[in-house]
């Protein structure tokens, strides 16, 4: 192998190395972009859960206030009250199972 062929081979190896390095960086960037998209989706889901919990808390407060102040409110709105209690327990269960907090047994 003469000097020119050796230089050509070295250049070819160097170009191949650069291409592989660029591909590795491109792959890392794609994975990072995918991770950011997943984080953003989780953040949107968390905002929706917080908003739902705020609505349930306000609705529960109003219901408790009306139970205390309005006569026969429970008898007239029994289904609504039970639905509210059910929603509170469902969201509590959802938060406990998805937050990593274990329910004591």
How do the helices and strands line up, and which of them pair or pack?
Elements: H1 3-69, H2 73-76, H3 78-98
Give structural notes.
The chain crosses the membrane at residues 44-68, 80-101. Keywords: Membrane, Transmembrane, Transmembrane helix. The chain starts with a helix and ends in a 7-residue tail after the last helix. It has 105 residues and is mainly α. The protein has one domain (3-98). The chain has helices at residues 3-69, 73-76, 78-98. Helix content is 88%, strand content 0%. Helix 1 (3-69) packs antiparallel against helix 3 (78-98).
Write the H/E string, N to C: HHH
The separation of the N and C termini measures 76 Å
Average pLDDT, all residues: 81
What's the overall geometry?
rod-shaped
Total separate domains = 1
Helix fraction? over 70%
How large is the count of helical segments? Answer: 3
Topology, number of strands: 0
* Low-confidence sequence ranges: none
Bin the strand percentage. under 5%
Question: In terms of structural class, how would the helical and strand content be classed?
Answer: mainly alpha
Radius of gyration: 30 Å
Largest sheet: none
């Amino acid at each position: 192998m003469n000097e020119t062929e050796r230089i050509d081979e070295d250049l070819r190896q160097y170009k191949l190395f650069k291409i592989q390095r660029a591909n590795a960086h491109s792959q890392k960037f794609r994975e990072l972009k995918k991770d950011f998209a997943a984080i953003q989706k989780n953040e949107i889901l968390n905002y929706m859960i917080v908003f739902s919990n705020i609505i349930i808390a306000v609705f529960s407060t109003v219901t408790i206030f009306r139970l205390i102040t309005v006569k026969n409110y429970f008898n007239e709105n029994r289904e609504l009250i039970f639905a509210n209690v059910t929603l509170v327990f469902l969201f509590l269960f959802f938060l406990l199972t998805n937050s990593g907090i274990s329910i004591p047994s």
